[in-house]
Amino acid sequence: MNRNMIIGIVLIAILILSVGTYFILNNLSNNTQNDENNQNNNENNINSGNDTNDENNEISKSNTLVVYYSATGNTKAVSNKLAENLNADIFEIVPVDPYIDEDLNWTDDNSRVTKEHENESLRNIELTSTTVSNWENYDTVLIGYPIWWGIAAWPVNTFVKANDFTGKTVIPFCTSSSSGLGQSGDLLAELAGTGNWQNGHRFSSNPSNSEISEWANSLK
User: How far is the C-alpha of 123 from the C-alpha of 208, rounded, in Å?
Assistant: First the structure.
């Protein structure tokens, strides 16, 4: 093999090696760029998703809560309409031992409510729950109840005593066929010992939607 042939072979080898190196480096560069683009896209998608979720969560969060006890359904109906008007969350006070129709017959000396009215020690009503999820997030709490002998139905007492109303505006409301709100709100405020308790509102047993909406709008 002469010298020129050897030089030719070497040059061809160098050329092949150079072309191969170029393609390898080019592929590595493209792959790196693709990886960077994918990473940026993923980060953008994640950030966009978080922003959207935070915004949706913020919209769904309410700082107003309607708490109610309802013996016959009247207070429940009013509470649901108030919550709808105020875009508020709702919590029902439920006794472990619910009141039945016979229990609520206040004209019967032997009925449950009559005995509880005459013996205050019987008014410590156990509830299925007194714990409200995210209680600390609520700035305004409306508390609804029927009027029993001029005061709030006593299952409400258990809820009020079990919770801390510090920093909250508390607005009582009641449903009643004849009695007014009376001192029921003041007595609950005294029982709570915390919270900024406001003057409340008395609804009839079956108020109109317009009356409920009007009062709800006055609170906004």
Answer: 32
| pLDDT per position as a tens digit, 57-111 | 333 368 999 999 999 999 999 999 999 999 999 999 999 999 999 999 999 999 9
The pTM for the full model equals: 0.72
- SS (HEC) of 90-149: EEECCECCCCCHHHHCCCCCCCHHHHHHHCHHHHCCCECCCCCCCHHHCCEEEEEEEEEC
pLDDT at 179: 86
E-strand stretches of the chain: 64-68, 89-92, 140-148, 151-152, 169-175, 196-197, 201-203
Contact 91, 100 (CB under 8 A): no
Residue 215 and residue 172: Cα distance in Å, rounded? 12
Compute the distance between CA of residue 158 and CA of residue 79 in angstroms, rounded to an integer.
19
CA distance 159 to 143: 10
pLDDT tens digit string along 108-134? 999 999 999 999 999 999 999 999 999
